[in-house]
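Annotated sample (chain length 414).
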Amino acid sequence: MKINRGVALVATTAAVALLASGCSSSDSGSADGGDVELRWIMSADSQAEVDVWEHLADMVHEQYPEITVNFESAPFKDYYNKLTTQAASNDLACIAGLQAQRVPDVGSLFTDLEPSFESTDFDIADYAPSIVEGLQNDDGEQLAVPYDLGPYVLYYNKDMFDAAGLPVPTPGWSKEEFLSAAKTLTTDGKYGFAADGTPDTWLPYVLSIGGDYIADGKPDLTNDKVVEGFTWVTDLVTKEQVAPAPPATGASNWTADQWRSGNVAMYVDGPWQLINAKANVDFTVGLATVPATDGTSITTMSGTGFGVTQGCDHPEEAWKAISVIIGADAQKYIADAGRGFPAYLDAQENWYTTAGVDGAQEAIETALSTVNVYRTTPKWNQLSALMLQYGVEAFSGAKTPAEVLEQVQSQVGN
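Output written by the structure step:
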């Protein structure tokens, strides 16, 4: 699986059209089975993440000395734009990361991996089934093998709670408890919470009141439940004043930056952000579930895997590389590094041990017990980018939440 949460407008139509003529990569190698160099592209928002991916690339070379993997990255907010730009210029890396929510938009850039499994005695059943399914297209083709998954949970600054004399959040805590804590924590230029317009931030509040955001395979942003859930979050800025207004630029990763800098006590994100949090904060990190409505807390989930792109000149070697990158040893390394909650089932306990975060295991297991699989539709990248952009107006009070949702719906709902 942030994800991490800004998104860019993806040129899906151009990418799909390009596939008809065949994408090619700039990976190199000899035709007689000699040494092969492969490019691997994946998002990374910190040097700590880059270090993890480069270590996995080195693991490939250790197991397959004839294969060298050259890693390249882009910030998450730019990653899918870069992917389709590479495709449009016949320069697509042979191995690429694919988030489950992006399958409707860019899944056509990837090949079916299932025929390759037998060549390396690979068993997909060793991985969490929900994210395995999430990385399949409508035809059931396995476009990527997951390395992580995770529900969106509440990150909190334990030091701020302790200083305010507040009990820390616990899984299952209510919206009323959350709001009371946020009000107490909003003082001296600091705020209780940070949110923006991206769906990851506010969809849990729609789902927890029994709402849905898709109807007949299309976005449905203007129904009463979606409006109610989004309004509850924007009210934290405009009415309750326990959260700062997002910047007019609609900057991605702004909520995480506010939390990491100690300006806010809480925000919503996925387990994959733990490595960045622990490397970049000087306070104690805690995790809890998203606040519940009438005892119900339903969050979304995400996850990411790696696949072989269309037109890769060396698909057999690319699969061998991926089989190492998401293999048992690599998954345990990722878990030990805290990079993400591993999709490989036997490595998940490693992540909890490494995390050493108050409430992490209980929060994640509680969230996963009721999690929504976070279905998406074509143009979801565009929808998320527009919500980040136009959502600023709802948080500033320039437009009502319903007006913003209508504006986005009119552009992506048909």
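Annotation: The mean pLDDT is 90.
Annotation: The longest strand covers residues 36-43.
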